[in-house]
Structures are given as structure tokens and as C-alpha cells.
């Protein structure tokens, strides 16, 4: 782990580098742009070629979609305990989503016009579930199941299959239970392009949800306009802010759980307490020895983990607001007062017993959250992102007459005579 104390020579420079912008490098931009353009021009053929190149899987128009037989086979293979866990998570996801949905409303403005908003579900959305070393069963629930709760009728899921053409049975089961109406065995930037632009067999979606690697995230960014997106969720992150009230075993456990994501994961720990840090170090070694993926986790601890000994908690929270972590674990005395000072974090876990893993799998809010500094301008997936918003204006003659003089003045200043006339003709009818 990289450990820096607030009075170390390199501390200020390191902290300044935590102020990140989620912008791609030139090579990434150009690579993804080429993939998007190929899918736009050649459709399925480009998708199949990239899938063969990157995933070592040869697809056809018949085999790119998960069949009903494959879904039935997957359901038969999934253990009852997994089905129970999926059901428990879905209950909480649905409950949270329904509570956070935007509701239609109407009011009357100063001139007597009836104004309001209407919210309706999208007709067709896409959800992306990454492949890799672990099947992200929970991501199906944290994306598609929210759309299901909101009432989206058509949900296209994309997830890469292995070279044998198989998708993990538990993931398939979770996708079906979460409302996926179609599933394609395609990953990477080519999957995002296919969902956004459509192909000979893939009907385009209206909005895309879900996390992914840097290629997936960049494809989503480039395709804004052709399609709407949720946010820019890349490699996972956690920042733990703790003082001496924290249980060092709990802090260590959350750091190890985050490191288990591997790859480009970022693990951060900020504390004004050097004694807590020493206790956490002991716990890290003690717990690491018991974990099946210890060598893998240690690589992330060595390469992707930083520890900052701050002057005080105020500085630690200020660093959080600059860093904008995906997950913040806040374990401090007077926690509500410090919580009020946090402005940029995708999700906040408050207190010793608020394990980030419960949020990952079960609590209810989506675990698909902004990363790479994008939390300064994006929030995590939420129910109202699956809803279209439309404003409504309804007027009678009296409200038109009360509005006329103000509209006439705007029309005069902006030189838009027809605008003014369209109101006057009603007011004087």
C-alpha cells in the first residue's frame, strides 16, 4: 500500500492528483470510435468479428441471442439458495425503486394555467452486465430489476459468453427474474454500439444502463445522442474515512472486499489516526490469509491502494469531495455531522456495521455508481432514469388573457412577432 502522511513531501501532490476527470486517452477514444463506426456500417458482421477477436467466440444471427431452452436449462441448474438470494435482493430493489419513482403532478401558475409533469417508463432499454472472472449476478438486479419495477416492457441485456457460448446459469436466471426480455451474448464496446445503433437482428434501445470496462464506458460516452445513458460507471472504487471509533477488523474487511474486484480497482483509506492504521494493517494480514483469492487481492493492495494520514477529519472529508469515490465508508464519531459535509460520493455507508457488500448485493439502492471522478456530475442508477419526463400545460381563455401582455413583451424583445400573435389571437377571440 502507498502510505502518505500529511506532512510528507509528496502528500500534497498526491492529493491534488485525486481530483480526477473521467476523460478517455487518445488511444482509447480512437479504438472505441473505430468499433462504433464498424458496427454502424456493418451491423452484425462487425459485432461477430469483434466478439471472435476479443472473446474467442464465433456467433451467428441464430446463436447471438440466449434461447428459451438455455434459460430453462439455467433455471434448472441454479441452486435454491441462489434463487432465494435473488428473490430477497429483488424485493429490496423493487421497494426502493418504487419509493424513488417520480410521480405525476399538476399545479396552477400565477396566470391560471394548469402546469405539471408526467412520467412514463421507457419502452425499450438496454442493460450491460460485464463478464470477466466473476459472474456479476447482482448487477442484473441493480440494473434490469429497477426497469422492471418502473414498468419498462422491453429490456435487452448484453453480457459476454465464454468461448463455449455459455453464460453463467445464475446470471441468466437473475436476468430473467429481473425482467430481461432478450439477452445477447455480446460484450465490450461492440455490445454498446449494437444496442444503441441496432443491427440486422438487434432492435435499438432508447437508453443504456450498466457498468463495464474502459471500452464499454467510452462507447457509452461516444454514443450519447444516438441513445441516452445512465452514467459513466467504470472500475470499482472505495474510500474509507475512519477515526478511532472504527473497528479495525471491519475497516480491513471492507478494503479487502473492494480489492477483490481486481483489475483497475481503487482502494483508499483516509484517517487522522496512525494507531488505527497500524491496527488495520494487522487485520489485513490476518484476514488475507483466510481468503481464497489472497494472491489476487494482494496485487490490488500493492498496486491500487492508497492510505492517507490526514491532519484531521475535516481534511479527510475535503479529500473525499475532491476524489468523488464510487463508495464511501464513513466510520466516525458524530457521524451525522460529518455526513452533512460529504458532497460527492456515489453511495455512502455510515457506521461500523454498514458493510459495502450489503449495498453491492441486497440493500436496495443500485450498486451501479459513478467512478473515475464522474461522481461530481453523475449519480448512481435510480428509478426515475427509467422514466421519460414530459411537461404539460393546459389553459383556458382567462389564463391566456392574463398571459398575453407578458408574452407580447418577450415577443417584441426577441423579434418573434408570430409568437405574440399566436397568443393574441386566442386572447381576443
Automatic annotation (TrEMBL):
Binding residue positions for NAD(+): 128, 190, 213
Active site per UniProt: 326 (proton acceptor), 327 (proton acceptor)
Cofactor notes: Binds 1 zinc ion per subunit.
Record's signal peptide: none
Organism expressing this protein natively: Rubritalea squalenifaciens DSM 18772
GO biological process: L-histidine biosynthetic process
Binding sites annotated in the UniProt record for Zn(2+): 258, 261, 360, 419
Binding site for substrate: 236, 258, 261, 327, 360, 414, 419
NCBIfam families assigned: hisD
UniProt GO molecular function: histidinol dehydrogenase activity; metal ion binding; NAD binding
Pfam family name, one: Histidinol_dh
Family designation: Belongs to the histidinol dehydrogenase family.
InterPro entries assigned: Ald_DH/histidinol_DH, Histidinol_DH_CS, Histidinol_DH_monofunct, Hstdl_DH
UniProt cofactor(s): Zn(2+)
GO CC entries: cytosol
Stated name of the protein: Histidinol dehydrogenase
Stretches assigned to coiled coil: 57-91
Keywords: Coiled coil, Metal-binding, NAD, Oxidoreductase, Zinc
Amino acid at each position: 500500500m502507498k502510505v502518505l502522511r500529511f506532512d510528507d513531501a509528496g502528500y500534497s501532490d498526491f492529493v491534488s492528483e485525486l481530483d480526477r476527470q473521467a476523460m478517455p486517452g487518445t488511444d482509447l477514444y480512437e479504438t472505441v470510435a473505430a468499433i462504433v463506426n464498424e458496427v454502424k456500417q456493418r451491423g452484425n458482421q462487425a459485432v461477430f468479428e469483434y466478439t471472435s477477436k476479443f472473446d474467442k467466440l464465433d456467433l451467428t444471427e441464430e446463436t447471438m441471442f440466449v434461447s428459451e431452452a438455455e434459460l430453462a436449462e439455467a433455471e434448472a441448474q441454479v441452486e435454491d439458495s441462489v434463487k432465494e438470494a435473488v428473490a430477497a435482493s429483488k424485493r429490496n430493489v423493487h421497494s426502493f425503486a418504487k419509493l424513488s419513482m417520480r410521480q405525476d403532478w399538476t399545479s396552477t401558475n400565477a396566470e391560471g394555467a394548469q402546469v405539471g409533469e408526467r412520467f412514463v417508463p421507457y419502452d425499450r432499454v438496454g442493460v450491460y452486465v460485464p463478464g470477466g472472472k466473476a459472474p456479476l449476478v447482482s448487477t442484473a438486479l441493480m440494473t434490469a430489476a429497477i426497469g422492471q419495477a418502473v414498468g419498462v416492457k422491453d429490456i435487452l441485456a448484453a453480457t459476454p459468453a465464454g468461448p463455449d457460448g455459455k453464460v453463467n446459469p445464475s446470471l441468466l436466471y437473475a436476468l430473467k427474474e429481473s425482467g430481461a426480455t432478450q439477452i445477447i451474448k455480446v460484450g465490450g464496446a461492440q455490445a454498446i454500439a449494437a444496442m444503441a445503433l441496432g443491427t440486422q437482428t438487434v432492435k435499438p434501445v432508447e437508453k443504456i444502463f450498466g457498468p463495464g470496462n474502459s471500452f464499454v464506458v467510452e462507447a457509452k460516452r461516444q454514443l450519447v445522442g444516438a441513445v441516452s445513458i445512465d452514467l459513466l460507471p467504470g472500475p470499482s472504487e472505495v474510500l474509507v474515512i475512519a477515526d478511532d471509533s472504527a473497528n479495525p477488523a471491519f475497516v480491513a474487511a471492507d478494503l479487502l472486499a473492494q480489492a477483490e474486484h481486481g483489475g483497475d480497482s481503487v482502494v483508499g483509506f483516509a484517517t487522522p489516526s496512525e494507531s488505527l492504521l497500524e491496527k488495520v494493517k494487522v487485520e489485513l494480514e490476518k484476514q488475507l490469509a483466510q481468503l481464497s483469492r489472497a494472491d489476487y487481492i494482494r496485487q490490488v493492495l500493492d498496486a491500487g491502494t492508497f492510505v492517507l494520514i490526514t491532519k484531521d477529519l475535516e481534511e479527510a472529508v475535503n479529500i473525499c469531495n475532491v476524489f468523488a469515490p464510487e463508495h464511501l465508508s464513513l466510520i466516525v464519531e458524530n457521524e451525522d455531522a460529518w455526513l452533512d459535509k460529504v458532497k460527492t460520493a456515489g453511495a455512502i455507508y455510515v457506521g461500523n456495521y454498514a458493510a459495502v457488500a450489503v449495498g453491492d448485493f441486497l440493500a436496495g439502492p443500485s450498486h451501479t455508481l459513478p467512478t473515475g471522478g464522474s461522481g461530481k456530475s453523475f449519480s448512481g442508477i435510480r428509478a426515475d432514469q427509467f422514466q421519460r419526463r414530459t411537461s404539460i400545460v393546459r389553459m383556458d381563455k382567462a389564463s391566456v388573457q392574463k398571459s398575453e401582455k407578458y408574452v407580447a413583451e418577450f415577443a417584441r424583445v426577441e423579434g418573434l412577432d408570430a409568437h405574440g400573435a399566436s397568443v393574441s389571437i386566442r386572447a381576443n377571440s
